[in-house]
Amino acid sequence: MSVIYVLLAISISVAILFFIAFVVSVRQGQYDDAYTPSVRMLFEDELVEESTENNNQDRSQTE
Amino acid sequence: MESSKCYHCGDSCSNTAVHFDEKIFCCQGCKMVYEIFSANGLEYYYDLEAAAGTTPDFKPHKFDYLDNPEIVNRLLEFNEEGMQVVNLHIPHIHCSSCIWVLENLNRLHPAVKSSQVDFPQKRIRVCFTTSEYTLKELVVLLSRIGYEPTISLDDYGKKKAKVDRSLIYKLGVAGFAFGNVMLLSFPEYFEVEEFWLEQYKVVFRWLMFAFSLPVVLYAAQDYFISAYKGLRSKLLNIDVPIALGVLALFFRSTVDIVFDFGSGFFDSLTGLIFFLLVGKFFQQKTYAFLSFERDYKSYFPIAVTRLRDSGQEENIEIYKVKSGDRLIIRNQEIIPVDCMLLKGNAEIDYSFVTGESQAIAKQPGDNLFAGGKQLGGVVEVEAMKSVSQSYLTQLWGNSVFSKNKATGFQTITDAIGRRFTLAVLSIAVIAASFWLWYDPTKAANVFTAVLIIACPCAIALAAPFTLGNMMRIFGKYGCYLKDTNVLERMAKIGTVVFDKTGTLTTSNERSITYEGMELYPEEAALLKTTLRGSNHPLSRSLYQILQENHIQTLDEFTEELGKGLEGKANDQSIRIGSAEYVGTEQQQDFSETSVHISTNNTYKGRFAFRNNYRKGLPHLFETLKTKASLYILSGDNDGEREALNQLLPFEVQMYFNQKPEDKLEFIEKLQEYGKVMMVGDGLNDAGALAQSDVGVAVAENVNVFSPACDAILDGKVITRLSRFLELAKRSMGIIKWSFLLSLCYNLIGLYFAVTGQLEPVIAAILMPLSSISIVAFTTVATNLVARRLTQTIQNES
Predict the structure, then answer these.
(1) What is the tally of structural domains in chain B?
(2) Does A31 touch chain B (CB under 8 A)?
(3) Which of B17, B121, B418, B478 has a CA between 20 and 30 Å from the CA of residue B110?
(4) What is the average per-residue pLDDT within B389-397?
């Protein structure tokens, strides 16, 4: 049953890893503006679509 | 009707519409922005949100001061190796289209490397290379597409504000520890005599101890500090029993695991602090786009044009203006210092200082005060004082602006905290002394158990959740509070003092009446046609109300800024503008804004603009009457006394000709009898707003300037003020009910504690249960109370 020490060590280090990730993300200011990224996320799709449209046009021209 | 709306800004296009690219625009400015966008492949702007733009109001010389490298350096966030980073405030940011276009600035100019919008704060951070681009060009580009940044004295030398994120860290630490401790203590809740558990419980317990160390030492820090401060000033605030409870929990648990008495209360300890911090976090709601601390600095420009002795113009920082300097003030610029007018005719709008929107005409030799906005053309002035010595800026030196209203105020939680602490301590002592006599081994146990179970977690959560939720509801209905403390103070208000101009009246709805000789049809047509060419706000509003007439083509049109217009057609000429410009000897009546008319050099008459009182004032006063005593203070003369007396349903005490200091002193006197709320708008009310217990600034547009205050109220919803007061009072009621509810939980817990049978599992169930039910109760109760408000609002409208 001493395997419990290994399990505990693993589970706690994983937990601490996530905690550090949280602290780092706060420190970088990722939680300062919680709104704009939610809008920005939707734009990227549109930009890609626009560029594929252009590609299609290019293709139709070459064809 | 859709087709008559401008494709760019959504304003209705009257007959000035511009057709371009099969689209319709209300003016050349909008068309130009569209052209810029479509030329750079940014048409997606219009797909994202229809008619999102604004008409650019661009003045080519407005940002000339950005040629001065010293000023530019003050504004930049980063400036090295050909790279510059600037953070600009753009009040117009309002929708997803704005974010999209501003984050694609690099398509408009390749020198822009990246741009990022912070929507809640309405700011943009732009990174650009300096080799082929300057800050001025960037600002001009933004202005051209309708996103003019406001650069004010506030930005001057502003260091990057350090954001206080400690509460989030603490919340993170407490939550992290709470989760892990819960997991580790779970086996012990139910399987007491299990073989393997017996074997390893020491490891589990010491792990829990390790997890709760950072919680006690770091996350709970604020409660110890606050309790210590309270005790030092001989105040028993709510943090005293919390700190006692935390200490009792920690030491009792440590002793428990050291001597193998039990598993300790580490789960309750970490959970308690986690819930308390969640409450604190919820209460901390801020409106990032509003500022409650604004002073004149956020309104003043950063630079001004100085005339050198040699006659050359230069842009200098405002703080460098000395008495005796000659300055140039252009159209729409703010006068930064008290000065004397030397050349040109000034038409000064002091609305920022007095709340009075009517412009005042000044002749050379007159004194001008800082804070006025020049509506006329270019004038030359001589500074009489430096910026810091001007009348307006000195107003800010008054000590009322530096005092913190929240510190002198005992919150409802602290008020109950005192009695609560005394009760808990006496119960603990009585119970402990009983057990000392009956079974001394259990005395210490019972003493700590009482402190633990009576830890007022639920009580400490009641106020943050009720007030925090209510504050969000207030915000939804157009009243933005600085913090939850304002809400508590609002509940105690017994007197409401109103400013008149700008608060009870609104410049948005002006009534225009014509006085004088009747105009012939052809004159009326000429008048309308001439007004069409002018962008002056008065011309615009006059143009709107005049009947449709046959639009002629003008043979000649001239506009003199700050004076008036002249139009000629079919041998007829018309002059529209100030009395002097039109050429009348008529006495100028300064209490009214008027536009005078003369045709073919004969005086015809004038259009008088009067500010209207806001709608629903009688109703507001009627409903407020039962709640508070009412006063009206005004900086104007008492010409409006009669009108007000007729408008209001009963006699209200009114005081006229009140200077800013008078208002402040008046409030101070009223405060001897109770809590006073001041409702004002201009800078002249700033002192009174700061002195009052709750200063409410009324704003037509919450994004533009409002003086330092506790709450910002949208001018359109001022009639809801009495509702807001009522809601504040109701919130206090809800808090009291939740105190009762949490006392019930405490009594149940105390039963276990006093009888010496408090098991960790009971504490671990009771504590979160009471906290969660309090949160649920307050949320439901506030929403119910607020729903009644919305129903009455709907009925009213």
Answers:
(1) 6
(2) yes
(3) B121
(4) 69
